[in-house]
Amino acid sequence: MAQQQPAQPEGETSGGVLGVFEWLGTHFIGLFNESGEQFVGLITGILPTLIVLLTFMYALTTFIGEQRVTRAVQWSARWWITRYTVMPIIAVLMLTNPMCYSFGRFLPERHKPAFYDSAVSFVHPVTTFFPYANAGELFVWLGIANGVTQLGESTVPLALRYFLVGILVIFIRGIVTEKITAFMIKRTGRTEVFADFDREFEAAKAGGR
């Protein structure tokens, strides 16, 4: 009588080439199973919040009026202290990433690099309280808050600090980039070119009134 072969222990794969294919098949479908679980978690977790927040901001913009929002942006563009704090915050909240950078049209050419630097640096801190503004990169904030969540603590104090530090950082970056831009304009001998840009900007702004 032939000896009965011992059964293969559960969870183990065959050896050789067949074992390699078994391992690949198991982990290939496992990847999609985990992705499906993550997707279900998003549907029952953050996605409803994103949709409601986005709808609220669109409704608020409609209620306030696009012209009033535009005037608020133009007002904040006048002074450096609001140009790199209030202006990028309004831009990111109202238009979200990446359309927020289009608010640079309210600035002369020499200030556009600094505004972009401020706005692009705020698309991560904004996700703490307004995740809809940059939902594609929400994992940055969630990764930071994960440790606090595992400890069973509230993430609100951390979110507030993250948000406020973000405002400070974009202000510093805006000022520094504006100074660097002015230095490079002067160093490369393009002072008159940007002076022409400034005159064209003022003429266009006067015509828009």
Automatic annotation (TrEMBL):
GO terms for biological process: phosphoenolpyruvate-dependent sugar phosphotransferase system. InterPro entries: PTS_IID_sorb. It holds the Pfam family EII-GUT. The chain crosses the membrane at residues 39-60, 81-104, 159-176. It comes from the Bacteria. Keywords: Membrane, Transmembrane, Transmembrane helix. GO terms for cellular component: membrane. PROSITE patterns: PTS_EIIC_TYPE_5 (PS51107). NCBIfam families: EII-GUT. This is PTS sorbitol transporter subunit IIC. It comes from Prauserella muralis.
